[in-house]
Amino acid sequence: MRVHLGSDHAGLDLKAHLTTWLTDHGYEPVDHGPFVFDAVDDYPVFCLRAAEGVVADRAEGLDSLGVVIGGSGNGEQIAANKVLGCRAALAWSEETASLGREHNDANVVAVGGRMHSLDDMTRFVQVFLETPFSGDERHVRRIGMLSSYDETHVLPPLPASARPGDA
Ligand SMILES: O=C[C@H](O)[C@H](O)[C@H](O)COP(=O)(O)O
User: Fold this and answer.
1) Active-site residue among 25, 103, 139, 153?
2) For residue 98, pLDDT beyond 70
3) In the CATH hierarchy, which fold is given to the domain comprising 2-162?
């Protein structure tokens, strides 16, 4: 499996660690930078490229996921989710990492490099990469609503039970 990585200065150390770890574990890492420490670099530059790499691979039928890393993971997740076809989940525990795949079929995971130990973050990424999407009908339906909104910008209809005054 190919794994696209992007970060900023706050995620640089973890990205370097993960690149080696991924290679050692049979993955094909693709590093979108940064490659040197620059305390004022900007995560969108690198995380948008990583997310685009995942989406392009998957459009060609390749097995591909992404990892974006910053101080909190928040901005990196937001950046990745700007790319059409990317679903980026923020992982801050093993459970949120696995749920990102099981329930959300996320194809990119965001991690906060200033929030956890190196071992914990590596484990979150490992869990994310190794967990399959459940494929359950309810999750497929919800993901379909998001994809449809991406394409049409039309809101999904409210169910009868959720209309104001119907409670
Ligand atoms: O959400 C954004 C990330 O956490 C960034 O890594 C963070 O904002 C960078 O902060 P600073 O520029 O203060 O190092």
Assistant:
1) 103
2) yes
3) Ribose 5-phosphate Isomerase B; Chain: A, (3.40.1400)
Q: Tokens at residue 53, please?
A: 């790499």
Instruction: Find the Cα–Cα–Cα–Cα dihedral 13, 19, 22, 24, rounded to 10°.
Output: -100
What ipTM describes this predicted complex?
0.98
Active-site position among 76, 102, 116, 130: 76
Residue 86: is it exposed, middle or buried by C-beta count within 10 angstroms (0-12/13-18/19+)? buried
Could you report the per-residue pLDDT of 21-50, keeping only the tens digit for each?
A: 999 999 999 999 999 999 999 999 999 999
Query: Domain ranges in the chain?
Result: 2-162
pLDDT bucket at 161, cuts 50 / 70 / 90: confident
Atom of ligand 1 nearest to the CA of 10: 6
- Three-state SS sequence of 69-102: EECCCHHHHHHHHCCCCCCEEECCCHHHHHHHHH
Active site residue 76: yes
- Beta-strand pair 64-70/88-90: unpaired
Q: Where are the alpha helices (DSSP H) in the chain?
A: 12-24, 43-59, 74-81, 94-102, 118-130, 137-152
Show Cβ contacts of residue 44 under 8 Å, excluding neighbours closer than 6 positions: 75, 79
